[in-house]
Each structure stands twice: as structure tokens, then as C-alpha cells.
Write a structure and sequence with these properties.
By secondary structure, the chain is mostly beta strands. It has no helices and 14 strands. It has a single domain, classed as TolB, C-terminal domain (Neuraminidase). Strands 4-5-6-7 form a four-stranded antiparallel sheet, with no helix packed on it.
Length: 139
């Protein structure tokens, strides 16, 4: 099963293992890696990165990123923002060019790992023991 997966190397978080090779992560301790078709997104040192068509890591604008996901060719980023009490969720094109604010999510503890799940435009964020619906593409 791992042969068909893409993941951060557990022995060296600076390496991302892909189906046929390995590539350098954008930092020494990558986390929150998500892969969809030929796209990759990861979080490093509070910044979301997406692997572009030239196999170069491109940083997305928000800082204080807690989680990232890929959904329908877009990168969904959960990040601390003054616009929200806890975490803001923003969608970017895979190239990171256009942004759409999705909504805010209550997070129990910002030091607790978080994850985003997205499908068909619906976005959920998980953190600690809670899961919260953030938004639907239609809202």
C-alpha cells in the first residue's frame, strides 16, 4: 500500500517519498502533507507550500498555518488570522494566485495538531477531539 502513497519520510521529515522517487521537502520538518493526482501541498514552519509544475515549492501567502489540504485542484489552508477568533480557512488556486476566504473555525488548542478534510466543496477541520464544519462551496 505504501508503494502507491506519498508521505513524509518518518526517519527524515525533510524528504517526501513519492511513488517512483523521493524529493526534498521545502524544509527540514515537513508535516500535513497532502497529495492529489500530480499536486502536493505541505506545511513547513507555519507556511503552506505547494509543488508547482516545475517541481519547485512555492509558498502561499498566509502565515501561522496549522493545516493544509487539496480539494478539486485548489489548496485549502487553515491559518491563524486576525479575521477570526481561532483559525481562518482560505482556498487558493493550486498556483497560489487567487484566494477565497472560506470561513472561521473554532479550535480547542492551537498547539494541538489539526487537519482539514474537503470534498465536493464541503470543508471540515479536525483538532483535538472536535470536528467542525467550516463551509460548503455553496455558502
Amino acid at each position: 500500500m505504501l508503494a502507491a502513497s506519498q508521505y513524509v519520510n518518518p526517519a527524515d521529515a525533510g524528504i517526501i517519498v513519492r511513488q517512483d522517487d523521493s524529493i526534498a521537502a521545502p524544509c527540514a520538518k515537513a508535516r500535513s502533507l497532502h497529495a492529489a493526482e500530480n499536486a502536493l501541498a505541505a506545511v513547513c514552519d507555519g507556511t503552506a507550500y505547494v509543488l508547482d509544475q516545475d517541481a519547485e515549492w512555492q509558498a502561499l501567502p498566509p502565515t501561522n498555518v496549522v493545516a493544509v489540504n487539496l480539494d478539486g485542484g485548489e489548496v485549502v489552508v487553515a491559518h491563524v488570522s486576525e479575521q477570526c477568533e481561532d483559525v481562518a480557512v482560505t482556498r487558493y488556486t493550486s498556483a497560489g494566485e487567487a484566494a477565497q476566504d472560506v470561513g472561521c473555525a473554532d479550535v480547542e488548542d492551537l498547539d494541538t495538531p489539526a487537519a482539514i478534510a474537503g470534498s465536493g466543496g464541503d470543508i471540515f477541520i479536525w483538532s483535538g477531539t472536535s470536528t467542525e464544519f467550516v463551509a460548503s462551496r455553496g455558502t
